[in-house]
Amino acid sequence: MEHYPSLNEFHKSENPLSALGLGSCLPKQFEAMNSLFLFLYNFDYDFISKVWGGTFLEDHLKSKLEGKNRTYQESVRALASFIGDLDTENRNLLFAYIIERHKK
Question: Which stretches of 13-87 are DSSP H helices?
Answer without folding.
Answer: 16-19, 26-42, 47-52, 57-72, 75-85
